[in-house]
Each structure stands twice: as C-alpha cells, then as structure tokens.
Design goal:
heterodimer; A: mainly beta; 7-stranded mixed beta sheet; 55% strand; B: mainly beta; 6-stranded mixed beta sheet; 0% helix
Chain lengths: 113, 111
C-alpha cells in the first residue's frame, strides 16, 4: 500500500538553527504539496509543485523558507533561520496526474525553542 | 477565488446522538468536494468525496449546490469518531489538483 513518507517525524531545535524536512511522494504522483498545521491557523498551504516545478509558494515566508524538488522522489522544505513561531506540524501530500485527491504523509512535528 | 468555511471549530456530542459537521463553500465553477479526517496525531486521510456518493464509517455527505454546502452527517456517533474533520474543495482551471481546505472541526464524542 503506497504511502507518502516524511522524515524526520519529530524535530526539536533551537532558534536560529537550520531545519530541513524531507518528503517522498507516492511513486508516480506528479503533484506535491507542503502544508503547515497549527491550532490557531489550521491547515495552511505553503507551496506546491507539479512535475517538480513550483506552481505556488505564496503561502510561504520567503525570507526564511524554501522548498525544492531535487528529483521526482524527493521534496524538501527548509527553514533558515528557524524561529519559535515556526513550531507546527508540517505535512507533505502528493497527488496523481489528472487526479483531485491528495494523499498525506504522517507529518513532521517541529518544535523550535 | 474559492473558499471553504467550517463554522464550528469544536463540536461535542454524546455517543449514539446524531452529528452534523457543517461545510459551506464559495466557487463560481463546478467543484469537487471532499471530507478528510485526522485522528489524534495521525495523518489526514480521505473520508469521502461527493462524486462517490458512498457512506464511509456511517458518514454521508450530500453536495447541495443551491445552498453551496457539503455537510457531513452520521445518525449515531461513536467514540471512535472523535477526530479533526476538514472539508476541502477542488477547483478547476489553474487550481486543478490543488485542494482548498476549511479551518477544520474538532469532533468529540462523549461516552
């Protein structure tokens, strides 16, 4: 049963440190999404890619966040430098070509002290 | 632009009671609507989609285009239904393949 995987599952770091989160989409899916989930804001779309090209990253703070897809099997979300307000659960999701459903990963729970 | 509204952040019911989670949307085209569920500390997973017209875990949802709603209903809630529920909309055009999510409703079913 194919699933989206994310690493690490948990990350505790100190303010100012760089954080890199990784996502492996389901093989064959060509659309990848990054979301941030907090109690206050709910689920926010940060960025998404289609065929590895960024389509929309308007939800992402550009000064510290960056998202890339080095290849079709890996998506990364980087925060540099991290701040306590970045503490949240970050979800990756992928979707098939021509499809409308999104398949979510287990999330990375980030705590910035 | 499309928008999804879930007016209730929190919803509490007792086991065996009916439950309805509200979802309203705004979109000028023909949307596809979904309900996703997230159990405690787990990933979001698809619960149901309007085009399937099926009942999953006793839940149903009917798309009402006149009222632009897609409320999720279950006649007899169970404790294991306690979770976060997100309503989501898929638009067409340049947004094809991207979901717009509501803010979510936390459902608690008390014994």
């Amino acid at each position: 049963d194919a699933r989206v995987t994310q690493t690490p599952r948990h990350k505790v770091t100190e303010m100012g440190q760089e954080v890199t989160m990784r996502c492996q989409p389901i093989l064959g899916h060509n659309t990848v999404f990054w979301y941030r989930q907090t109690m206050m804001q709910g689920l926010e779309l940060l960025a998404y890619f289609r065929n590895r090209a960024p389509l929309d990253d308007s939800g992402m703070p550009k000064d510290r966040f960056s998202a890339e897809m080095p290849d079709a099997t890996l998506a990364t979300l980087k925060i540099q430098p991290s701040e306590p307000r970045d503490s949240a659960v970050y979800f990756c999701a992928s979707g098939p070509s021509g499809g409308r459903e999104e398949f979510f990963g287990p999330g990375t729970r980030l705590t910035v002290l | 632009a499309q928008r999804v509204t879930q007016p209730e952040k929190l919803l509490s019911v007792f086991k065996g009671a009916p439950v309805e989670l509200k979802c309203n949307y705004s979109y000028s085209g023909s949307p596809e609507l979904f309900w996703y569920v997230q159990y405690s500390r787990q990933r979001l997973q698809l619960l149901l989609r309007h085009i399937s017209r099926e009942s999953i875990k006793g839940f149903t949802a009917d798309l009402n285009k006149g009222e632009t709603s897609f409320h999720l209903k279950k006649p007899f809630a169970q404790e294991e239904d306690s979770a976060m529920y997100y309503c989501a909309l898929s638009a067409g055009g340049t947004s094809y393949g991207k979901l717009t999510f509501g803010q979510g409703t936390i459902l608690t079913v008390h014994p």
